[in-house]
């Protein structure tokens, strides 16, 4: 059985100004060079680089490749975009009352109008892992993505109840290393390492 290693990287910091930004295409802020060097070092040995096409991921992957030119050229995949918050995109968090008083289990199921729930994001992420894991079986896959997508990947790997994934902290430029052993079992090397 082929062992496939996944290195999930969150994009550089952004300034959402207290707004829901899911798939809203805002730029990333310029990260400090020490953080970039640490993150790039954790990606050494990657055979493949997948990335969300949103600007904050594009800029991060370009900057990481400047720091470490040996990193593979990215393949952009819309399946890696952040959760789609539909009509809530760009609105202040304080204006979204649908989340008021909900526990994590209920929050995972909340589907914004014209958007997707965290449960939907789990399905989308599983489809991407299945597709790209088959395509690049036995390799090391670096993935530039968003906090929600990385939470979903970890939730799936650990076979956690969906709502538990919402409590995971995923910092900008952090790396989470997961290994698919090819027999349905996953190993976790580390989560949210910066």
Describe this structure in words.
The relative contact order is 0.24. This protein is α/β, with parallel strands linked by helices. A hairpin with a 5-residue loop joins strand 5 and strand 6 (186-193). The chain is globular. The chain has a six-stranded mixed β-sheet. It is built from six helices and six strands. It has a single domain (4-193), classed as Phosphoglycerate mutase-like (Rossmann fold, 3-Layer(aba) Sandwich).
Give the SSE map.
Layout: E1 4-10, H1 33-42, E2 48-51, H2 55-67, E3 74-76, H3 104-109, H4 118-135, E4 140-145, H5 147-157, H6 162-165, E5 175-180, E6 186-193
Parallel strand pairs: 1-4, 2-3, 2-4
Antiparallel strand pairs: 1-5, 5-6
Helix pairs in contact: 1-2, 4-5
Number of strands: 6
How many domains in all? 1
The CATH architecture designation is 3-Layer(aba) Sandwich
| Strand adjacency order, main sheet | 3-2-4-1-5-6
Q: Which descriptor suits the 3D outline?
A: globular
CATH topology: Rossmann fold
Largest sheet, in brief, is: 6 strands, mixed
What series of H and E elements makes up the topology?
EHEHEHHEHHEE
Task: Give me the Rg, rounded.
Answer: 16 Å
Poorly predicted runs are none
Please give the CATH class. Answer: Alpha Beta
Spell out the CATH superfamily: Phosphoglycerate mutase-like
User: Approximately how much beta-strand content do the residues carry?
Assistant: 15-25%
Structural class: alpha/beta
Distance between the termini: 31 Å
- Overall pLDDT score: 95
**Percentage of residues assigned to helices:** 25-40%
Please, how many helices? 6
């Amino acid at each position: 059985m082929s062992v496939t290693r996944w290195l999930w990287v969150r994009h550089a910091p952004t300034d959402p100004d207290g707004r829901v930004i899911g798939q809203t295409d805002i730029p990333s802020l310029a990260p400090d060079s020490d953080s970039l060097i640490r993150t790039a070092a954790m990606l050494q040995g990657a055979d493949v680089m997948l990335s969300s096409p949103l600007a904050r991921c594009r800029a991060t992957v370009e900057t990481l490749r400047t720091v470490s030119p040996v990193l593979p050229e990215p393949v952009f995949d819309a399946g890696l975009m952040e959760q789609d918050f539909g009509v809530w995109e760009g609105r202040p968090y304080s204006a979204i009352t649908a989340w008021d008083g909900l526990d994590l289990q209920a929050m995972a199921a909340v589907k914004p109008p014209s958007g997707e729930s965290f449960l939907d994001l789990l399905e989308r992420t599983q489809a991407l892992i299945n597709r790209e894991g088959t395509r690049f079986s036995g390799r090391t896959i670096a993935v530039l993505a968003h906090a929600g997508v990385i939470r979903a990947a970890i939730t799936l790997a650990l076979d956690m109840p969906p709502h538990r994934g919402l409590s995971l902290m995923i910092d900008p430029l952090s790396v989470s290393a997961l290994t698919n052993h090819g027999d349905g079992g996953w190993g976790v090397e580390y989560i949210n390492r910066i």
